[in-house]
Each structure stands twice: as C-alpha cells, then as structure tokens.
Design a protein that fits this description.
It contains 18 helices and no strands. It is mostly helical. It has one domain (about 1-370). InterPro entries: PIG-V/Gpi18.
Length: about 375
C-alpha cells in the first residue's frame, strides 16, 4: 500500500506539471495550441509508435535526395505499439489515451517490482525511498507518455528481479518481449555473461551447480540472439542487411552527417560536435573515469554485484552504439537501479531536498526536451 500511495502522489505531481506546460503549448507539428493531456503526451516519438501500430513497417526503405536511408519506422520496435494496438481494437478507444493508459499501468507495475528489487539489497526504509526517487525522477513524465520506456522498465525490473532470485528459465519470455520493446537484448546478454562469470568465480562460498550454470549461460546466449533478432527481421523484410543500423544512423545525420557505425566512436564524435576538439574528447574520457569511480563508491556497492553488473553492461552498450544528444537522458533510464544508492542517506532534510530537487528536474526536462518551441532541436 505504501508503494501504491507513493506512485499515486507522484503521478498527481507529474500530471500537474504536464498540464501546466500543455496549457501554454503553442501549435506545433504534433498538436494544436493548448492540447489536451492525451495529445500532449503522445508527441515526438509517440507519433512513430502510432505509425507502427496502425501501418506497420515499410518493406522498402525511404531514401534521402542523396541516396542515404532516411528516418523510418524500423527504428521503433513492435512490443509497445502492438500492445496499444490490440487494446484499441478490443476497446474501440483512440490511440492516444490507450497509449497513455498502457504506460501508466506499466509504471505502476514497475514501482511495485522495483520495491521488491530494492528490498533484496537495501533496508525497507531505503527501498521505499528508492521508489520515491524513481517515481519523481526528472524523466518520470515518460512513465505516463506514449513512449515504450515504461513498458521496457517494467520488463527490465522483472528480469533483474528474476536474476537475483536465480529463476533463469522464467527469464526467457521476459527477455523475448523486452528485446522487442526497446534495444536491450545485447546489453542484457553481456550482463548475464558477467553474472555467470561472477557466480563461477565465487562458487566456493556460493555454490553454482553445473546444471544451473548451463541454464544461465543458455539464457545469456538466448538474450544475445534476441538482441540481434530485430535487425535480422528488418533485413528479411527490406532485403538490406544494414536496414536497422542505417535507419538508426539517419537520426544522427543532422549532427555529423552520414557515417558508418563504428563501435565506441559515437560518444567521441558527439563530444567533438558539442565542444570541439580536443575538449570534447577530454570530456568523454573524464565522464568514463567519473562513472568508473562512481561504480566503486560505497553507496553504489551497497546495491550488490548483480545490479552493478547490469548498470556497467548497459553503460558499455550505450558507449558502443549511442550518439549522445538531448535524448541521452531518456536512454539512461534503464540505469535506474542507481537511485537505490542515492536513497541510502536517512537524514530527513536530505531526503526532502533530493525529492524536491528531482521534481524541479522534471520541470526542467519538460521545458528543455518535451515542450515544443518553434523549430525545436532537442528531442526527448
């Protein structure tokens, strides 16, 4: 009941902020001026999910005037839009409110599971405050927008909990759906491989039977296969082996033009684009060092080995393939177990200040990334 109460209060706060911003939103590419909540909450990529849900994926990749693959629906995986589409067919309700409904329900499920996850590594008070921080985090408006993140976080939280409970076989359907909801299969495969390696290393104090090791390893391989499934499906449908990666690269072309996907290069390319050379490269290296030091801090170590391995695995995945721009904040959401470290101090003043600070962060993110001001170049 406490988790439900936290979730309800946080949704009231976030909804209030969103409605205030919607009331001053001008006409834009997605909505009329002063849109209602559902319309405002399904802007930006919400339109792409609508396109997928209603029309599916193109068999022929769109090309730009200079012959490069243009932005298209293959960048958006089918898990979330399929669920929304099924509900619209069953209920006859319009897309926008159903998309919001699915995200809201998933956010509640995530909050409930996240408490159980944190309770395995933190005291009850810290676990509850972790839920508070998760629910009021700067990007928590996405938990009630027409994006796939809420559904992904629900599946990811369940998957992490199953790993901590060592219920490896049950992971299979969860991974299958999660990998087709947001790109996550490869990162989760790396995490499971590291998990298996650590369990084997520590088997003298924590027995790791051969049968259990074989099961966990097999699930890690399955996750890797699922991580490659969507690019494979795009290849089969379009006839282009690089259909998915070319589509993803089209989104960064506005920044650095069309370039080949070179693993671990995009962050440095972004650093140079934002800050110039050599400052951009130095900034990325400093960020990597700071992240590494943070992972060995006492607060983060309190999360336990497995949750830290997930955060590191996902960070390596982002470092390998993602080009940082304004949507980097959204892409960092799967690292949410880190709020468990932020929740550790029990001082009441600290907890109040952090909570209010994160709520202010919501307003900042809404203004910077979600609200549209003319030719907005800061996509969420």
């Amino acid at each position: 009941m406490k988790v439900l109460a936290i979730w309800l209060v946080s949704r009231v706060v976030t909804t209030s902020l969103v409605l205030v911003l919607a009331s001053v939103q001008g006409q834009n590419a997605w909505t009329q001026a002063r849109p209602d909540y559902a319309a405002f909450a399904t802007m930006w990529d919400g339109l792409w999910y609508n396109i997928v849900g209603v029309g599916g994926y193109p068999s022929a990749l769109p090309l730009t005037a200079d012959g490069h693959v243009g932005e298209n629906a293959w960048a958006f995986m089918p898990g979330y839009p399929v669920v929304v589409r099924l509900l619209t067919v069953l209920t006859g309700a319009p897309w926008a409110p159903v998309a919001v409904f699915v995200s809201v329900v998933c956010s509640l499920g995530t909050a409930l599971l996240f408490f159980r996850l944190m309770r395995r590594v933190q005291p009850q008070s810290t676990a509850l405050f972790s839920v508070v921080l998760f629910c009021v985090a700067p990007l928590s408006p996405l938990l009630q927008f027409g994006y796939a993140e809420s559904m992904q976080l629900l599946l990811l939280t369940l998957a992490l909990l199953l790993v901590l409970e060592r219920r490896y076989l049950v992971l299979v359907p969860v991974i299958a759906v999660m990998a087709l909801t947001r790109p996550s299969g490869l990162a989760f495969a790396l995490f499971l491989a590291l998990h298996v390696g650590y369990r084997w290393y520590s088997r003298t104090r924590d027995p790791f039977p051969v049968r259990e090791a074989a099961t966990a390893s097999s699930v890690a391989v399955f996750s890797g296969v699922m991580g490659l499934a969507w690019p494979g499906i795009a290849w089969l449908v379009t006839g282009s082996i690089t259909a998915y990666t070319d589509t993803e690269l089209s989104w960064r072309s506005a920044y650095i033009g069309y370039r080949e996907l070179v693993p671990f290069a995009a962050w440095f390319q972004s650093g140079v684009w934002w800050l110039g050379a050599p400052l951009g490269i130095i900034a990325v290296l400093a960020l990597i060092i700071a992240f590494t030091l943070m992972m060995f801090s006492p607060a983060v170590k309190s999360l336990g080995v497995d949750l830290r391995l997930w955060v590191v695995s996902y960070a390596l995945y982002l470092l390998a393939v993602f080009f940082p721009q304004s949507s980097v904040f959204r892409l960092l959401m799967p690292m949410f177990p880190l709020v468990g470290a932020l929740a550790r101090p029990r001082n009441v003043v600290y907890r109040v200040v952090v909570t209010l600070g994160l709520i202010c962060g919501q307003w900042g993110w809404l203004l910077l990334c979600w609200g549209v001001d003319g030719a907005d170049w800061t996509p969420p």
